[in-house]
Design brief:
The protein is an alpha/beta fold. 50% of the residues lie in helices and 15% in strands. α1 packs across α8. Bound molecules: adenosine monophosphate.
Length: 213
Amino acid sequence: MAKRIVIMGAPGAGKGSQVSIIKEKYDIDAIVTGDLLRRHVSDKTDIGRAAAAYMNEGKLVPDDIIIDMIREEMKGKDSFILDGFPRTVVQAEALDRMLEEMQLPLTVAILLSVDDEIIVKRLTSRFVCSGCGKIFSSLREPVKEGDKCSDCGASIIRRKDDNEETIKERLRVYREQTFPVVEYYRRKGILKEVDGTGTPQEVFERIDSLLGE
Ligand code: AMP
């Protein structure tokens, strides 16, 4: 069955890890705004040039840039999981309008809940593959910058914005601008809250049981 999912949660709540599992398990496309933007930055496109400074400071990229980018990505897709979008109420309203035009309502908005102390710990020990985006954690396995990804062989790096100062700003922005989106979906009756603590597999089992309902 077609599924249209939004996954939400603070930076480091584990959205990326869950998206990798969900897209395999349900065979749906993942649209990950952070990854799309990072690709634009490394390809030095107009979007990348406009977005880089905001991203390095942990601030949100302006809504119009993001909304246009998502509109392009969603073309022709009737099943997908959105990670990192919407992050403001303006973006959530724009998404509703796009989906109305396509006559495809959202199936569910999942909120991964994790305490702040765990978030900071996870982000300061997070490594990512520069090729496929796979996430590694030095809390789970010995990993350092320059190691090769076990899936695709590209180099493992640290994200530029995973430093303590930028993490604090990203959490502040999340509370101020993204938490209202959680309330937006709660009011619409499509929000499902999931405990984001534990291993990625444990968290996925919680998600799987509610998506199978
Ligand atoms: P993420 O990988 O989801 O943590 O995103 C990294 C950065 O990309 C964020 O800190 C923002 O600067 C930017 N970004 C990603 N998604 C959005 C969005 N929906 N709206 C605005 N900025 C975004």
